[in-house]
Amino acid sequence: MPLEAKGVGFRYGRGPWVLRGVSMAVQPGEVVGLVGPSGCGKTTLARILAGYEEPQEGTVLLDGAAPPARGYHPVQLVFQHPEKAVNPRWTMRRILTEGGMPEEPLLRALGIEPQWLSRWPRELSGGELQRFCVARALGPHTRYLIADEMTAMLDAVTQAQIWHAVLDVAARRGMGVLVISHEKPLLDRLCHRTVDVRAFQ
C-alpha cells in the first residue's frame, strides 16, 4: 500500500497557503521525484509526509490509515544540512542506534569508516555526517525515505556513492523513495516519474 497525501493544505499561522489541494502517492519500491521552484512548498510537503507537521487540510495515509503517532516513524526524512539533524552531544554510534543499528554492509556501502563511530558530529565533515544521516534514516523499520536535497551540497563522487546505496536498499526492501531536488538530470537518472508541486497550485 502507498504513502499518500490526499487534499493536503498547509499554511503558517494566518499567512497564505503554502500548499493547497495536494494529492499524490508513492508506491512501495517506487522512486518519485518532486520538483518546483524555491518557496513552492516542497520541503513543507516533505515534513508533512514524514510526520513533522500536521496538515490543516486533507490527510496523510500509509497503507490506507494514519501513520503511527508514536515510536519509530516508518517515513524517514533526510535534510540537506546534516549538522541540523543530529544531536551534537551524542557520539555517531549513539546517533546511528537511535532507530536501530544499520547493518554493517550498508555502512560499508555508504563509505562510513568504523573509526568514525566513536567521533562527535563536530569532528566529521559535512559529507561524512550526511552519510550517517542517510544510514540512520535507512533503519530496519523504514518503509519510505524522503530525500530533501539530500546530496545537493556534496561532491559528485559522494553523491553517486550515497545514491547507489540508497537505491540498492530500496530495491531489496521494496522501499519507496521521494527525491526532492532542483537538479533535473539527477531526477531523470534516479526516478521512475516526477511530480511538479506547481500542478496543485
Work out the helicity level. Answer: 25-40%
How far is the N terminus from the C terminus?
27 Å
Task: Give the strand order of the largest sheet, numbering strands 1, 2, ... along the chain.
Answer: 5-6-7-3-8
The shape, in one word, is: globular
The largest sheet is: 5 strands, parallel
Mean pLDDT: 91
Look up the CATH topology: Rossmann fold
Say how many strands there are: 8
Portion in beta strands: 15-25%
Structure annotation, total helices? 6
Query: What count of domains describes the coordinates?
Result: 1
Q: What is the fourth-level CATH superfamily?
A: P-loop containing nucleotide triphosphate hydrolases
Q: Which CATH architecture is right? A: 3-Layer(aba) Sandwich
Low-confidence stretches: none
Question: What is the CATH class?
Answer: Alpha Beta
Based on CA atoms alone, the radius of gyration comes out at 16 Å
Q: Give me the secondary-structure category.
A: alpha/beta
| Strand/helix succession | EEEHEEHHHEHEHE
Any key phrases for this structure?
Rossmann fold; 3-stranded antiparallel beta sheet; 201 residues; 6 helices; alpha/beta; 5-stranded parallel beta sheet; globular
Short synopsis of the structure:
With 201 residues, this protein is an alpha/beta fold.
Overview of the molecule:
With 201 residues, the chain is an alpha/beta fold. The protein has one domain (3-200): Rossmann fold. The protein has helices at 42-49, 92-97, 104-109, 126-137, 156-173, 184-190; strands at 3-11, 17-26, 31-35, 57-62, 75-78, 144-148, 176-180, 193-196. Strands 5-6-7-3-8 form a 5-stranded parallel sheet, sandwiched between helices. The protein has a 3-stranded antiparallel sheet with strand order 2-1-4, covered by helices on one side. It is globular and about 45 Å long. The mean pLDDT is 91.
